[in-house]
């Protein structure tokens, strides 16, 4: 499955647009992770516990996006984007979304 942030795919032609597709993940850092992150925030700089959490969450959201696009019969997802937010003070939400399409080589 090709996942691209562009409107088209070099070397391919979009033959059918199947519709919107997305992958949603909500994650919470455990108590010990929040404690360690809180300590690190006192010194400033990158908080590696949260960086790892968000990177993993983004990968998981893309995996769900691909699974949903495959279930629709898509060959690719174009115009893929991420959106994120917080739920309360301890949970992060990441949404990967785009347009599921069928393609063929030029």
Description:
Helices cover 35% and strands 43% of the residues. A hairpin with a 3-residue loop joins strand 3 and strand 4. The chain is of the alpha+beta class and 106 residues long. It has helices at 31-43, 48-71; strands spanning 2-3, 12-28, 76-87, 91-105. It has a 4-stranded mixed beta sheet. It has 2 helices and 4 strands, in the order E-E-H-H-E-E. The mean pLDDT is 87.
Write the layout of secondary structure elements.
Elements: E1 2-3, E2 12-28, H1 31-43, H2 48-71, E3 76-87, E4 91-105
Parallel strand pairs: 1-3
Antiparallel strand pairs: 2-4, 3-4
What integer value in Å does the Rg equal? 17 Å
Shape: elongated
Q: Which structural class best describes the helix and strand composition?
A: alpha+beta
> Main β-sheet: number of strands, strand sense, barrel status?
4 strands, mixed
Binned strand content? 35-45%
Identify the CATH class: Alpha Beta
End-to-end Cα distance: 17 Å
Order of helices and strands: EEHHEE
Strands of the widest sheet, in order across it, are: 1-3-4-2
Low-confidence stretches: none
Q: What is the CATH topology assignment? A: Translation Initiation Factor IF3
Please identify the oligomeric state: single chain
Kindly report the name of the CATH homologous superfamily. Answer: Hypothetical protein apc22750. Chain B
CATH-scheme architecture: 2-Layer Sandwich
User: How many independent structural domains?
Assistant: 1
Total beta strand runs: 4
Instruction: Work out the helix count.
Output: 2
Q: Mean pLDDT across all residues, rounded?
A: 87
Proportion in helices? 25-40%
């Amino acid at each position: 499955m090709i996942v691209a942030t562009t409107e088209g795919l070099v070397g391919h032609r979009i033959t059918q647009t199947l519709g919107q597709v997305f992958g949603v993940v909500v994650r919470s850092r455990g108590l010990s992770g929040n404690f360690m992150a809180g300590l690190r925030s006192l010194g400033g700089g990158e908080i590696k516990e949260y960086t790892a959490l968000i990177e993993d969450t983004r990968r998981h959201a893309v995996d769900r996006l691909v699974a949903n696009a495959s279930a629709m019969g898509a060959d690719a997802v174009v115009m893929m984007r991420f959106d994120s937010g917080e739920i309360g003070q301890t949970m992060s939400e990441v949404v990967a979304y785009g347009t599921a399409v069928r393609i063929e080589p030029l």
